[in-house]
Amino acid sequence: MSPDAPTRVGVGGEHPYDVVIGTGLLGELPGLLGDGVQRIAVIHPGALRTTADAVRDDLVAQGFEAHAVEVPDAEEAKTAEVAAYCWSVLGRIGMTRSDAVVGIGGGATTDLAGFVAASWLRGVKWVPIPTTVLGMVDAAVGGKTGINTAEGKNLVGAFHPPAGVLCDLAALESLPVNEYVAGLAEVVKAGFIADPSILDIIEADPAGAARPDGPYVRDLVVRSVRVKADVVGADLRESGLREILNYGHTLGHAIEKLERYKWRHGAAISVGMVFAAELGRLAGRLDDDTADRHRRVLETLGLPTSYDGQAWPRLLDTMRIDKKSRGDRLRFVVLDALGKPGILEAPDPQLLTAAFTEVAR
Ligand SMILES: NC(=O)c1ccc[n+]([C@@H]2O[C@H](COP(=O)([O-])OP(=O)(O)OC[C@H]3O[C@@H](n4cnc5c(N)ncnc54)[C@H](O)[C@@H]3O)[C@@H](O)[C@H]2O)c1
Ligand SMILES: O=C(O)C(=O)C[C@@H](O)[C@H](O)[C@H](O)COP(=O)(O)O
Ligand SMILES: [Zn+2]
Q1: pLDDT tens digits for range 166-200
Q2: Can you say which residues are annotated as belonging to the binding site for Zn(2+)?
Q3: Distances 44 to 89, 112, 140 between C-alpha atoms, Å
Q4: Is 39 a catalytic residue?
Q5: Fewer CB within a 10 Å sphere, N or C end of the chain?
Q6: Residues with Cβ within 6 A of ligand 2?
């Protein structure tokens, strides 16, 4: 195998597919889309217009009828209004059940594109082409698609696995360093919940790990994708195991909402993971070293690990509508050891407050 050959990570389950990781992958797209596709809607934000146009032109050159559909940037795209705009474009171009959606961009764009694909005609094929590290290692893999509502993050959505995922690492060259670093929070998450070798790589050279053109990009992406693929291949619909991917997200999503989505997702879940580690420690489930390691590794990458102490009542209120909640019972993913996640059911409110005190500033 030549060093530039793409790595393919298989995602199992009812509708298996490949996550292809490498460079110069555009030629792989028709193969992932499979037979029978005539029309393709290429959903993308303005920031990725050049890339989307190149993909569209390439598809047209190969005989497809491809349309670029520009949507607002980042979290602004994850709204019912933007989804409705996309549905209206799909209607106008005559997209049928044998056609397909391609989403090009960060996790926000692929979450929207996947949701549009899941809901249009009750489900058409789609392929995400993630262009952020967060999109590659997490959002584009696993078929969790959705949009936000005024009440909170990702409250409307569907499980709709893609036909394949194209992670072209060359896209990361134009990604601002702060976006790259924010995305590393999900990489660190994969390290804590399942593959500690990820943490070893980062800790051995944090400056190198924090660079989108650094020496560990491919290794970190492949390892994190493997973690995600193993989990979602076994539990697409989050009936159990998949909840571990929500490590740090209960508080993280509440922070995002309070910040009106001006904080990056990765930054919010960075604070959320330190909170979850403190919760695990205070519940007597996680050892001190592993709990402390969270703050250390996240801070060494330049990620935030604290949040406004005054916000606790509002955060607590927002967390009640977290998807892991069951009725009045809050549920949190915590660690029992490195790589051993579990669920903390309905923790005592005093425990929650004590854990938050550890991240409050
Ligand atoms: N579905 C899932 O399983 C899942 C998993 C994790 C996160 N998410 C979601 O993903 C979203 C966060 O994704 P994100 O961190 O990728 O943020 P994002 O999609 O908001 O993108 C961040 C910014 O980077 C820009 N950008 C993207 N690619 C670029 C490139 N190659 N060069 C230059 N600029 C580029 C975007 O235009 C945007 O401004 C959140 O909405 C989160 O809820 C979903
Ligand atoms: O794939 C999953 O499952 C995850 O929980 C991955 C998370 O990183 C991601 O942010 C996801 O969108 C959160 O899902 P939600 O169901 O809590 O909205
Ligand atoms: Zn996430």
Answers
A1: 999 999 999 999 999 999 999 999 999 999 999 99
A2: 186, 249, 265
A3: 13, 10, 14
A4: no
A5: N
A6: 138, 142, 144, 153-154, 186, 238, 242, 245-246, 249, 323
Residue closest to 154 by CA, chosen among 265, 69, 15 = 265
Question: Which ligand has its closest atom nearest to the C-alpha of 106?
Answer: 1
How far is 206 from 181, CA to CA, in rounded Å? 11
Which regions of the chain are under pLDDT 70? Answer: 1-3
Residue nearest to ligand 2 atom 4, measured at CA: 245
> Quick check: CB of 73 below 6 Å from ligand 1?
yes
Distance 182 CA to ligand 1 centre (A): 10
CA nearest neighbour of 188 among 105, 300, 323, 23: 300
Query: pLDDT at position 7, please?
Result: 98
Q: Which atom of ligand 2 is nearest to the CA of 142?
A: 1
Q: Pick the atom of ligand 1 nearest to 145's CA.
A: 1
Expressed in angstroms and rounded, the spacing between residue 188 Cα and the centre of ligand 2 is: 15
Q: How much distance in Å is there from the Cα of 51 to the middle of ligand 2?
A: 26
CA–CA separation, 351 and 347 (whole Å):
7
Cα separation, 187 vs 133, in Å, equals 9
Q: Which residues contact 20 (CB under 8 A, 6 or more apart)?
A: 6, 7, 8, 28, 32, 164, 165, 166, 167
List of domains in the chain: 7-172 (3.40.50.1970), 246-358 (1.20.1090.10)
pLDDT at position 4, please? Answer: 78
The question of ipTM being above 0.90 is answered as yes
Binding site for NAD(+), by residue number, is: 73-78, 107-111, 131-132, 144, 153
pLDDT tens-digit map of 9-58: 999 999 999 999 999 998 999 999 999 999 999 999 999 999 999 999 99
Q: Is this prediction's pTM over 0.90?
A: yes
> What's the pLDDT at 3?
52
Active site residue 249: yes
